[in-house]
Structures are given as structure tokens and as C-alpha cells.
């Protein structure tokens, strides 16, 4: 049974996906070695893991706590990095080689899918975002002025709750930002 699960998930033999009780987030665990980690272990098939996580661990939206923090907003985002990003690597790819234009084409497609209602930003961020916040549906939590890169912050603070930005370019890559609170 565990072997079949590894074939479906793309994880190396012995590894499994579990859900954290405290953070309600998926993590990777090896029962024999008791090793646990937030990032996939070496030898993971990223395409199979992406498909597995989308079907087994994707949120159908972000379940936000019903509170706010004065002077701060809460956003989720989807990040597509390119080879000129300040750190051209992610949980999905150890070395990102796509051009800026290829990244723009990819994020434009994501934007179109969100706008047509085929998928939500949190659902898409879970499998497509190059940010580690992907495991939380892109949720960055609360942040205030001066906490994020200027271009990101400027776009985020202009949004009303529930509203999504257009494509925002920063040193990290290309973003779609959704204001949650």
C-alpha cells in the first residue's frame, strides 16, 4: 500500500505526506527514520508530487481567521520566477532556467484561469507558485508597510479585500497578489 502511495505521490520510497496538527499544512515524513521536513526530500518526482498535492492537499480557498491586525494587511500570492530572479530556485525546481518572457506567458495563463473562475489563486498557488508559501495556498500572513519589496507592497496596499492585482514584477519574479484581509 505504501509503495503504491509513493508511486502516486512521486516521493522516494518510505516517505509520505502528512498534515501538521498545529499549522494544518502538509509536510513530508519518513516513519522508519522519523525524519520530517516541510520541503520534499531529494529524489522526489516534482511532476507527480504536484499532481498528488493538487488532488489530495489543495485548499479550496484560504480559510482565514476572522481577525485583523491594525496597520497590516493579509495577502496570498502566486510567484513565477525566471532565470534573472534574485534567487532562481524554488521548491519545485532546483534551478530555474525559464526566461522573463516565458515566466510572463506562464503567469498570464494563470491570471486568465483565475479570472475565468476555473481555479482560485490559492488552489493554483499550491501547485504552481515558486514561493514556499505555496504549501499555504500562497498565504503570506499579515504584513505592514516596509515588510515587503516596494513593488509588491505598493500593489498589495492598493487592493481591497478579495481583489486580485494584475501582474507585479519584483526582484523575486512575477506575482499575482490577492488581498485577503
TrEMBL record:
Gene3D superfamilies named among the record's database cross-references: 2.20.70.10, 3.10.50.40
Any single GO BP term: positive regulation of transcription initiation by RNA polymerase II
GO MF term set: peptidyl-prolyl cis-trans isomerase activity
Keyword annotations: Isomerase, Rotamase
Span of domain WW: 9-43
Catalyzed reactions: [protein]-peptidylproline (omega=180) = [protein]-peptidylproline (omega=0)
EC class name: isomerase
Listed name of the protein: Peptidyl-prolyl cis-trans isomerase
Originating organism: Melanomma pulvis-pyrius CBS 109.77
